[in-house]
Automatic annotation (TrEMBL):
Domain NADPH-dependent FMN reductase-like: 25-92
A family per Pfam: FMN_red
Annotated InterPro entries: Flavoprotein-like_sf (IPR029039), FMN_Rdtase-like_dom (IPR005025)
Protein name: Flavodoxin
GO MF: oxidoreductase activity
Organism: Actinokineospora fastidiosa
Length: 135
């Protein structure tokens, strides 16, 4: 997860992107105020028993209603890592973000096992794509 996260941040902070401020928050410390201040979001989670992490679920539980009306259409992307199937985690993220009215701007990056160079490149592209749409 750390390598994937670092690749996303590297893409989002590419020097060629202007006017973008990247704020990094752990799911358990991110609040509705953070989401209301954001122009876009990249979500990352391990797949735990075929679902998003409890931390990401908690994040959604705490930000859902306070941001529901104001953040419709907000661009987002996500990455999910697991040792087995990650489809359930991606589906659960899709359900919540659809309810929030967020707009996915990059296909979910899914990684099984140890991340390889192509996985890291896709995460870089994810970060850069979300950030490029904001500047």
């Amino acid at each position: 997860m750390q390598a994937l996260f670092e690749a996303v941040v590297s893409g989002a902070t590419d020097p060629e992107l202007e006017g973008v401020t990247v704020v990094r928050k752990a799911a358990l410390s991110a609040t509705a105020v953070d989401v209301l201040a954001a122009d876009g979001v990249v979500l990352g989670t391990p797949a735990n028993i075929g679902y998003m992490s409890g931390a990401l679920k908690h994040f959604f539980d705490t930000v859902y209603y306070p941001t529901l009306d104001e953040k419709r259409g907000m661009p987002f992307g996500c990455y999910v890592h697991g040792n087995e199937g990650v489809e359930g985690a991606v589906a659960s993220i899709d359900r919540v973000t659809t309810g929030l009215g967020w707009k996915r701007v990059f296909e979910p990056v899914t990684v099984l096992g140890t991340p390889g160079k192509p996985d890291l490149e896709r995460c870089w592209e994810l970060g850069a794509t979300v950030a490029a749409g904001l500047g």
